[in-house]
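(Structure overview)
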Amino acid sequence: MWCSVAAWPRDRTVEHLLPRSRGGRDGAPNLLPACRACNRERRSQAAAAYARQRARDGRAVDVETLLRGLDRIAANGSVAERRYGARQARAVRHWRDSEAALAAHLARVTRA
């Protein structure tokens, strides 16, 4: 699961990358495993925004799993899902790369 939670089988769900309330469909490209708590907590929030919020709160995010799902919907979803997937994947990659750059900078500064 992209939220990195080790959930009990009964607490595992699938969530819609592009929420149904925002035009997402029930097709496989738009679905990604999630724990019930994250699925409920995220509601219709954008995937990239939810991932950043989890990280700010000190909670784990499996960025690579999230990106695989977003890339899949960008390649195979409906028109709206493809746009959403591409936009969200760009946002997640930008966030991941800027976090990595900040961590590298902090490592250099603290060594000096």
